[in-house]
Amino acid sequence: QVQLMEFGGGLVQDGGSLKLSCTASGSIFTGDWMNWHRLGWYRQAPGKQRELVATISSGGALDYAESVKGRFTISRVNRTTVDLQMASLKPEDTAVYYCNAYLRASPWDSIKDYWGQGTQVTVSS
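^ thats the sequence. predicted structure below, dont judge the formating
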């Protein structure tokens, strides 16, 4: 029903920048019905739990992890694409980054999380 695909991961040096993009597909994004929803990015480093990086709601509300405030910027490019611009990257930002959609896929579905496959971001010191 909802598919998410991430682009833009890779290797970057300490202090560098990288942009991640997530493209969503599914009838929910092309039909006339779409209520409140939230798109965003989470990350998971080896041996750690998955954690929030940044989210943006359909109303424009933003949420950032304290560790990335002032360095990362999330933006809704269009109805199906959300970007994460990352600057001043640090080795501790190294993780697999996952695109997330929190929404109801149809009027008959309950609201739930959808996840992309993830993209690796590695920051070398």
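The mean pLDDT is 94.
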